[in-house]
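Bug #77: duplicate submission created two jobs. Keeping one. Sequence:
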Amino acid sequence: MDCSQIRDSFMSGDRLSEEQLEAHLAQCPQCKALFERDAELGRSLAAQANAALPLPADFFEQIEQGLARETGARAWLRSRPSRVRFVFTLLLVLLAVIAGGVLRQRADFAQYPFLRVALLLCVYFVAIALAFAKELSELPRRNPLRESLPLLAFALAVPILAAFAPATELSRRAGAEGALNCFAYGALFTLPVALLLWAFDRNDRPSLRSVCLSAAALGLSANLLLELHCSNGNPLHVLLGHASLGVAWLTAWAAARGLSRA
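Kept job's structure:
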């Protein structure tokens, strides 16, 4: 008989062989102390341990679900290092912007000053990269939600401000029509990014911080490619068809993924 068997007997309430128990206690003062005063110390420690570690009714079912969760293609994807997940997500955003914006360029694109276009692309892309970096990072955070809210506010505000930015003559003449088409266009091209982000995410029930960062990156990605694709500068069109994508992704991501309390 050894010490672990004695401690297990306290936890389970099973009786031990008196002869083996006496032989062990004669050589082990630590276990002997557990049986003093009618085993008061041993019973107390066992009660505290059982109270601290209650097993839910579906304990083994949860274990099986956890093991099943860590098999298959998605398990392999989210087991990749953070740097790999970040690079692949950013590359897919770049591919979406090229396919939806650069290759299907707005009619008045050449009328905009190069410096303005370059600055706009840099601001959007840096904010997108920052959101993905924070979302996929494994570093500890001191105040996670507070860190993500400014980026979400930026992602929602920039497209709104873009609605009132100086526009070309062609852009100014356009009306508010086509907003729904632009909304669907931006959502369609950023949907693959959202799916990859879901596959990379290691939390089945993400925190509010995670949802905010994901929505910020997806909304900015959609607005970036629409800036390159859509020549309609009507403020109402931009607000309804472009800027609303950030709010839509925030709502859809929170509803589809659910939220944890973290």
